[in-house]
Amino acid sequence: MPAYNDTPLAAQRKNDSQPLIQTNFTTLKTYLEQDHSIITGSGKHKQVTLPVLGAVPATLANELAVYSKTVNATTQLYMKRNEDLVEVPLTGQIHTGVMSWAMLPGGVKLRWGHGITPAGGVTPIINLNAVDAALAFTETPHVTVSRAHNCFADTDVDITNLHVYVNTITYVNPANCNLILRGGRSSSDNDAAVGYIYFAVGI
Questions:
Q1: What is the pLDDT of residue 26?
Q2: Which residue among 103, 123, 153, 163 is least crowded, i.e. fewest CB within 10 A of its CB?
């Protein structure tokens, strides 16, 4: 804000108010030049600087807020629509060892991960929705899986009949979207340890 909000006063002479008015113009110029090209760019933005907020901003039913937030010590860009409290991440990704998540600005959600299919008929569940609610799938996603030879402790050199596939994928709710993968080492073996990489996309 200007240094002198009440300048000029009615009783002030020009000689008295001139330096105060000049100080106000200098102060306004400093504020206006932040992120703007006020001389050569006719007030156009050079950039938008968003200080990190301490809390999720409040918005009305017909509003949308774009703001910055610190996630894992890194500043990221977020969006919030209407009156709900759901935050939509626009930048960054989350990585938790064998699984990673990200969201595209249009709301498309991505998951990817790796591992080894279990041997002996054991079928552990990969929960694709084990993540923040804003990143959870709201319906069954599309999933593709490929063989990951010579990585993730699967170093079998005989890859002639190695295969891995999606056995089932079941959307239950925003907290549970269960993926089961199976792998084999022959045309009749579907319960072997096989390295894999999967990719899931949905909304």
A1: 85
A2: 153
